[in-house]
């Protein structure tokens, strides 16, 4: 493996320095290199792994570009030398459990979510300055590399777990979330399980969804996309997030999975909501956003997640 990595990274020195064991989806190990520093290498032997890692790498790049929350810098994605699967090399970070930086993570996540709307405001100001002929090209705001994104989706397919998300761009969030997020999961459940109750509840729930968003104006926010407690931590100096499955969506979506498995303290939420207060109807939409993850877990890990998926659908339909 060291020799293979030397070739791919154009390094003269590569030495394994530890195995993180990886997560539920991929294996991971760290290596010292002479030209890329210490790197963390994720390995996955599934045939779809290349697409999954390309999505993760593009997500890390997009988040890095916002300069809001620390993520590992991606280095390279390439096919596994065995012929099936893929490898993803990124900056190694010394990640410990998230403890003392909960509040900072809440604030930084909110800043990530507000980044695109700040670009919109800035763009509006630039346009009006150009309109009045008062634009100053020496202004450092002209150096901003990102521009405002006015729709929902992402340029690249990203995978929540190993399932690809349909990130095709869409102007309307309710349509995007209903069809491309929930609909895609329910189509898979129909294909694999043909579950009659899921099908019936879904046909009722679809009609209730638009009402849950009445009066809400949603600006696309760049999301981490898989922000459960296992994908956050901290270094000695700052909070860290990793393993993203990004897309532009409703900021509230991010808190769906954060709330499912724990790992985030009151300090995290209060810092977050200081910058992005809960909008009216938040609690109900929070359940709607958790539904995606229950369905995604049903599709990944089987019928153990059927009960919670159906119960949340029943509640949402009943309360509408
Ligand atoms: N850049 C990194 N540097 C050092 N260690 C890392 C890095 N990225 C991840 N790790 C470690 O490896 C473990 C697994 O990583 P990751 O969550 O990306 O794996 P996965 O199999 O894709 O994910 P999951 O279990 O969330 O589905 C993490 O819990 C973390 O301890």
UniProtKB/TrEMBL annotation:
EC number: 2.7.1.172
SUPFAM superfamilies referenced in this protein's UniProt entry, alphabetically: Protein kinase-like (PK-like) (SSF56112)
Disordered: annotated span: 117-141
Top-rank taxon, per record: Eukaryota
Matching InterPro entries: Fructo-/Ketosamine-3-kinase, Kinase-like_dom_sf
GO molecular function list: ATP binding; kinase activity; protein-ribulosamine 3-kinase activity
Keyword line: ATP-binding, Kinase, Nucleotide-binding, Transferase
One term under GO cellular component: cytosol
Signal peptide interval: none
Catalytic reaction list: N(6)-(D-psicosyl)-L-lysyl-[protein] + ATP = N(6)-(3-O-phospho-D-psicosyl)-L-lysyl-[protein] + ADP + H(+); N(6)-D-ribulosyl-L-lysyl-[protein] + ATP = N(6)-(3-O-phospho-D-ribulosyl)-L-lysyl-[protein] + ADP + H(+)
Family of this protein: Belongs to the fructosamine kinase family.
Name assigned to this protein: protein-ribulosamine 3-kinase
Organism: Holothuria leucospilota
């Amino acid at each position: 493996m060291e020799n293979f990595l030397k070739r791919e990274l154009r390094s003269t020195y590569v030495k394994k320095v530890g195995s993180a064991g990886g997560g539920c989806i991929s294996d991971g190990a760290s290596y010292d290199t002479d030209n890329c520093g210490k790197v963390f290498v994720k390995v996955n032997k599934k045939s779809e792994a290349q697409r999954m890692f390309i999505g993760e790498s593009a997500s890390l790049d997009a988040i890095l570009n916002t300069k809001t929350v620390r993520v590992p810098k991606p280095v390279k994605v390439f096919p596994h030398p065995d012929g099936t699967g893929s490898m993803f090399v990124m900056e190694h970070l010394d990640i410990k459990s998230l403890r003392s930086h909960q509040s900072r993570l809440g604030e930084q996540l909110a800043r990530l979510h507000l980044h695109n709307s700040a670009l919109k405001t800035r763009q509006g100001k630039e346009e009006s300055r150009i309109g009045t002929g008062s634009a100053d090209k020496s202004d450092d705001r002209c150096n901003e590399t990102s521009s405002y994104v006015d729709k929902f989706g992402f340029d690249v397919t990203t995978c929540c777990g190993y399932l690809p998300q349909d990130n095709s761009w869409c102007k309307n969030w309710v349509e995007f979330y209903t069809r491309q997020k929930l609909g895609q999961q329910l189509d898979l459940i129909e294909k694999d399980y043909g579950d009659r109750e899921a099908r019936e509840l879904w046909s009722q729930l679809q009609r209730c969804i638009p009402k849950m968003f009445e009066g809400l104006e949603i600006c696309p926010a760049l999301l981490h996309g898989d922000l459960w407690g296992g994908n956050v931590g901290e270094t000695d100096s700052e909070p860290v997030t990793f393993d993203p499955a990004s897309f532009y969506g409703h900021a509230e979506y991010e808190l769906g999975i954060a709330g499912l498995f724990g790992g985030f303290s009151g300090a995290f939420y209060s810092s977050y909501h200081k910058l992005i207060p809960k909008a009216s109807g938040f609690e109900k939409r929070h359940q709607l956003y958790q539904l995606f993850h229950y369905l995604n877990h049903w599709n990944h890990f089987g019928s153990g997640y059927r009960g919670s998926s159906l119960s949340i659908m029943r509640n949402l339909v009943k309360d509408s």
